C-alpha cells in the first residue's frame, strides 16, 4: 500500500496539476470620493507621504491608498478539478471539497479561482478564498463556506521578497533557538516601550489610552508587590542559583528587583517534585541550590529567564514552603503567600507559561514535533500581474480546525496565573507565542508581529492562556461568569484548593469593580453587587454540567455555592423579575484575613421568597428528571429528560391531567438520592422545598431545590438542585404557572447552609 507523503515547508506539495499555477499580485489605487468638492477619483500622493484630492487638494486621512489583490486561476474545469483531487493533488483536493456538495456545479461550465486582498502589505496575514464564475456569462456563483472550506493561508519565509505581502511565517519548532528567543526579547521590548495597557493590572475602561505619544519610560515594581522570596539567577556570564528572602536582604535588593523586574513561572506540577522548599531546607536553599536537583520544567524556566534578561524568578515550589499541602489552611506560609498571588503574577514583568508540559518533570524546551496541516503546504510562485515577473515563493496552507488543548489549560491553579498576568511567553505544543493585555503574536504562524487585540475579539493565539484584560469590554459580573465556567472545567490535585486556586483572581475582579464605582463583594465563590439585589439570585442559579460528580469528601463550601460541588458548572443569568431576596449571610475564613481563600464549615445565608413543597407541586403536575447540557444559559426547556423523551400521550386519559411539569436537575448523586428518598415518602415530602429565584413571563418559574432538616440539621436547609416549572398543554384555560406558583405558595425565610 502506498504511504501518503506528509507535506512540510521543507518538502512542500507540488505535482503536475499545480506546479504551473501562479498567484498573481495586482496593485491598485482605488478611487475615493471627496466630501468637500464631490470629486471621485484616485487620491494624489505627496512627498510627505500624505494623500490629497487632485481637484481641491484637501487631505484624505488615510495611511495607505494601495490595495493588493491576489488571484490564483485554476487551469481545470470542474471535471478536471475532481480528477486532480482523486489523484492526490492537495490544492485541488481543497478546492473540490468546496464545490463538490453543490450539485449545480457538477453540470455546465464554470471557472474556479482563489482570491484575496489586503489594503497594505507586511503587517497582516493573507488568506485566499474560493470563487466560482459561470463560464458563459462570467457571473459569480455563490459557494457556501459551510461546504467545508474557509481560507488558505499564504505563508512565506522571512527574507523572501514575497514576505512583504504576508506576515504568515512557518512555525518555529525549536523553541530554544535564537530565532525563538529573539522573538521573545523583541515582543518584551515592544510591549515595555509601547503598551500603556500592559503597565497596569487594572484596566478599568476600554477607552483607556492604549499607546503613549513616545516611548514609555522604565517600568518599576512597587516594593509592596515584590514577592517574599525569589530565586537569584545571577547573570548570563556569572550564573548562580539561590533563594533570597527579599525583605531580609534589605533596600539594595528591593531596589534592584523594582528597577529590573522579575519573572513568574506558570506550570503544571503533575505530581510531587524532586526538589521543593521545605522548612528543613530553607537555610540550605538560601546558600545555594543545585540546578540539576530540580525538575526539568524548573531548569528550563531558569534558562529562559536568563535568556530574556532577568536575574530574579519566582517559582511556587521553591518560593513557598511546601509543608502540609492539604489545601485546608494548615500551612500558614502557603495561606499567606496565596493571598499575594494577585501581586506576584499581576505585577511580574513577565510570566513564563510552560503550557506544553503536563508535569514538572517533562520540561518545555524540547524541539516540537511537526503536526501536519489539513492541506499543504502547497508551493506556488508569486508574480506581478502586469509584468509577469516572479516576486518570490509562497506556500498555501489550511490549518486543522481544532488543535489539542495545552496541558496547562486543564489545571485549576494555572487559570488565575495566566489571567492575572500582564505579559505571557507561552511555550505551547506547536511553538512559542506571546500574549499581553494589548497584543499577541507567534514566532511563526498567521500572526507573527505584535498585533493589537480587537475587543471583543480573539483573546489569544493559544486557547485558554490570556490576560484577563482581554475581557475589558464586559462587566465584572460577566467576567466572573467566564472565569467560573472555565475554572470548573479544570482539574485540581487537592480538593481543598477549590477556593484558594481562584481567590487571587476573585480579589482582582473585585478591585476592578470597585475602581469602576461598583460595590462588589466576594462570598464563598459568588460575586455579589451590594447595590443590586438581583445579583445574589443570579449567582445562586448556577447548575452542574455533569451532576454525576460526587460532592467533596470534606467540607469546602456551602451547598448554595458552586464551590461545594465537583466538576464543571454553568453560571446563572436572571431573565426577569426578583421574586426573592437574600436578607443576610455569614462565612468564616479558614485562614485569618484570607477572605478570598478557603472557608471553615458553617457558612450560611437567609433567603426570603415564595416557597412550595414538593407535596404541593405534585398535586398539580408531574416530575421529570432532566440532564444538563453544555449551554451557557439556563434554559431548562432545552434539557433532555434522563430516561429519554417523555410520552405525554399517556396523560390524555387521566382524570387529573397535569397542569405543569416540574423539571428537576440534581447537584450531585448524593443530592438526587436525598430528593428521591424524600419524594418516595409522603411523610417527608413537605421537607423538599422549591424556592423561586426567577420567573419567565408567564411561561414558568425557575429556582433551587432545598431540603429542610437534612441529616441532623434541624430547621436548616441544604441545596439539592435546581428546577424549572413549566406549563403543560392541558393547562389551557387555567391560570399561568407564575400565577399558580405565587398564589399556591407561601412566603418564608430559609436558612441555607
Can you walk me through this structure?
The chain has 17 helices and 35 strands. The strands form seven sheets. The protein has a nine-stranded mixed sheet with strand order 13-12-15-14-16-19-20-21-22, sandwiched between helices. A hairpin with a 2-residue loop joins strand 20 (432-436) and strand 21 (439-442).
**Uncertain stretches:** 630-655
Helical content (DSSP H or I, runs of 4+): 10-25%
What is the β-strand count? Answer: 35
Strand portion: 25-35%
Report the C-alpha radius of gyration, rounded.
Answer: 31 Å
Largest sheet: 9 strands, mixed
- What is the strand arrangement across the widest sheet? 13-12-15-14-16-19-20-21-22
General form: globular
- Derived from helix and strand composition plus strand pairing, the structural class reads alpha+beta
Cα distance, first to last residue? 66 Å
Mean pLDDT: 84
The number of distinct helices, counting runs of at least 4 residues, comes to: 17
Secondary structure layout:
Blueprint: E1 22-28, E2 32-33, E3 40-41, E4 44-45, E5 51-52, E6 59-60, E7 67-73, H1 78-86, H2 90-99, E8 110-118, E9 127-134, E10 140-141, E11 152-155, H3 178-194, E12 229-235, E13 238-245, H4 246-249, H5 251-260, E14 263-266, H6 282-287, H7 296-307, E15 312-314, H8 316-319, H9 332-338, H10 341-347, E16 350-353, E17 375-384, E18 390-398, H11 413-420, E19 423-427, E20 432-436, E21 439-442, E22 451-452, H12 476-487, H13 500-515, E23 520-523, E24 526-529, H14 534-540, E25 543-544, E26 569-570, E27 580-586, E28 604-613, H15 614-618, E29 621-627, E30 640-641, E31 660-666, H16 669-680, E32 688-696, E33 700-708, E34 717-727, H17 737-744, E35 746-752
Helix pairs in contact: 1-2, 10-11, 11-13, 12-13
Domain Heterokaryon incompatibility: 262-417
Protein name: Heterokaryon incompatibility domain-containing protein
InterPro entries: HET
Amino acid at each position: 500500500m502506498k504511504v501518503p507523503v506528509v507535506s512540510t515547508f521543507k518538502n512542500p506539495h507540488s505535482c503536475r496539476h499545480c506546479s504551473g499555477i501562479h498567484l498573481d499580485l495586482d496593485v491598485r489605487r482605488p478611487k475615493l470620493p471627496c466630501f468637500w468638492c464631490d470629486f471621485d477619483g484616485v487620491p494624489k500622493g505627496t512627498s510627505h507621504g500624505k494623500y490629497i484630492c487632485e481637484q481641491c487638494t484637501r487631505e484624505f486621512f488615510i495611511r495607505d491608498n494601495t490595495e493588493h489583490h491576489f488571484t490564483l486561476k485554476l487551469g481545470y474545469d470542474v471535471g478536471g478539478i475532481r480528477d486532480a483531487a482523486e489523484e492526490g493533488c492537495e490544492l485541488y483536493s481543497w478546492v473540490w471539497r468546496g464545490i463538490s456538495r453543490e450539485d449545480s456545479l457538477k453540470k455546465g461550465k464554470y471557472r474556479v479561482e482563489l482570491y484575496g486582498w489586503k489594503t497594505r502589505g507586511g503587517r497582516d496575514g493573507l488568506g485566499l478564498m474560493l470563487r466560482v464564475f459561470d463560464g458563459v456569462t462570467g457571473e459569480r456563483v455563490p459557494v457556501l463556506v459551510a461546504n467545508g472550506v474557509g481560507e488558505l493561508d499564504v505563508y512565506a519565509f522571512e527574507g523572501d521578497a514575497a514576505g512583504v505581502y504576508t506576515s504568515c511565517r512557518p512555525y518555529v519548532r525549536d523553541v530554544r533557538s535564537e530565532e525563538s528567543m529573539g522573538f521573545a526579547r523583541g515582543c518584551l521590548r515592544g510591549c515595555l516601550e509601547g503598551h500603556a495597557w500592559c503597565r497596569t493590572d487594572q484596566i478599568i475602561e476600554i477607552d483607556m489610552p492604549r499607546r503613549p505619544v513616545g516611548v514609555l519610560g522604565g517600568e518599576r515594581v512597587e516594593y509592596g508587590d515584590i514577592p517574599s522570596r525569589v530565586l537569584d539567577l545571577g547573570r548570563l556570564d556569572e550564573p548562580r542559583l539561590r533563594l533570597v528572602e527579599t525583605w531580609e536582604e534589605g533596600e539594595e535588593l528591593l531596589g534592584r528587583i523594582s528597577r529590573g523586574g522579575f519573572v513568574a513561572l506558570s506550570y503544571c506540577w503533575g505530581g510531587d517534585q524532586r526538589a521543593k522548599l521545605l522548612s528543613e531546607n530553607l537555610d540550605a536553599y538560601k546558600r545555594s541550590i543545585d540546578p540539576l536537583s530540580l525538575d526539568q520544567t524548573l531548569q528550563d524556566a531558569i534558562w529562559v529567564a536568563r535568556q530574556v534578561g532577568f536575574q530574579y524568578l519566582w517559582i511556587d515550589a521553591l518560593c513557598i514552603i511546601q509543608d502540609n499541602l492539604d489545601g485546608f489552611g494548615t500551612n500558614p506560609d502557603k495561606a499567606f503567600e496565596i493571598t499575594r498571588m494577585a501581586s506576584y503574577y499581576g505585577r511580574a514583568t513577565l510570566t513564563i507559561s510552560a503550557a506544553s508540559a503536563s508535569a514538572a518533570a517533562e520540561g518545555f524546551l524540547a524541539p516540537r514535533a511537526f503536526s501536519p496541516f489539513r492541506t499543504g503546504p502547497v508551493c506556488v510562485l508569486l508574480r506581478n500581474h502586469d509584468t509577469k515577473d516572479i516576486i518570490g515563493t509562497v506556500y498555501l496552507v489550511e490549518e486543522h480546525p481544532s488543535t489539542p488543548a495545552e496541558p496547562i489549560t486543564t489545571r485549576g491553579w494555572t487559570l488565575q496565573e495566566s489571567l492575572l498576568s500582564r505579559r505571557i511567553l507561552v511555550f505551547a505544543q506547536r511553538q512559542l507565542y506571546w500574549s499581553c493585555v494589548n497584543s499577541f503574536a507567534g514566532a511563526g504562524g498567521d500572526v507573527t508581529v505584535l498585533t493589537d487585540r480587537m475587543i471583543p475579539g480573539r483573546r489569544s493565539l493559544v486557547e485558554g492562556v490570556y490576560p484577563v484584560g482581554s475581557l475589558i469590554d464586559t462587566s465584572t459580573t460577566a467576567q466572573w461568569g467566564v472565569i467560573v465556567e472555565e475554572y470548573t472545567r479544570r482539574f485540581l490535585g487537592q480538593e481543598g484548593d477549590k477556593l484558594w486556586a481562584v481567590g487571587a483572581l476573585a480579589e482582582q475582579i473585585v478591585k476592578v469593580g470597585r475602581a469602576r464605582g461598583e460595590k462588589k463583594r466576594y462570598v464563598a465563590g459568588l460575586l455579589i453587587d451590594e447595590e443590586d439585589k438581583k445579583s445574589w439570585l443570579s449567582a445562586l442559579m448556577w447548575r452542574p454540567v455533569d451532576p454525576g460528580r460526587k460532592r467533596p469528601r470534606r467540607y469546602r463550601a456551602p451547598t448554595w455555592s458552586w464551590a461545594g460541588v465537583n466538576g464543571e458548572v454553568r453560571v446563572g443569568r436572571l431573565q426577569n423579575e426578583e421574586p426573592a431576596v437574600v436578607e443576610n449571610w455569614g462565612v468564616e475564613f479558614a485562614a485569618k484575613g484570607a477572605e478570598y481563600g478557603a472557608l471553615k464549615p458553617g457558612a450560611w445565608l437567609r433567603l426570603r421568597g415564595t416557597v412550595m413543597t414538593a407535596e404541593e407541586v405534585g398535586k398539580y403536575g408531574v416530575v421529570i428528571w432532566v440532564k444538563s447540557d453544555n449551554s451557557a444559559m439556563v434554559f431548562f426547556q432545552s434539557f433532555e429528560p434522563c430516561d429519554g423523551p417523555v410520552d405525554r400521550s399517556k396523560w390524555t386519559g387521566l382524570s387529573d391531567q397535569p397542569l405543569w411539569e416540574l423539571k428537576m436537575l440534581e447537584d450531585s448523586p448524593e443530592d438526587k438520592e436525598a430528593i428521591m428518598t424524600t419524594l418516595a415518602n409522603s411523610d417527608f415530602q413537605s421537607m423538599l422545598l422549591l424556592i423561586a429565584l426567577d420567573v419567565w413571563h408567564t411561561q414558568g418559574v425557575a429556582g433551587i431545590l432545598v431540603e429542610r432538616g437534612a441529616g441532623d440539621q434541624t430547621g436548616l436547609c441544604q441545596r439539592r438542585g435546581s428546577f424549572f416549572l413549566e406549563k403543560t398543554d392541558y393547562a389551557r384555560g387555567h391560570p399561568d404557572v407564575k400565577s399558580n406558583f405565587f398564589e399556591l405558595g407561601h412566603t418564608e425565610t430559609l436558612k441555607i447552609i
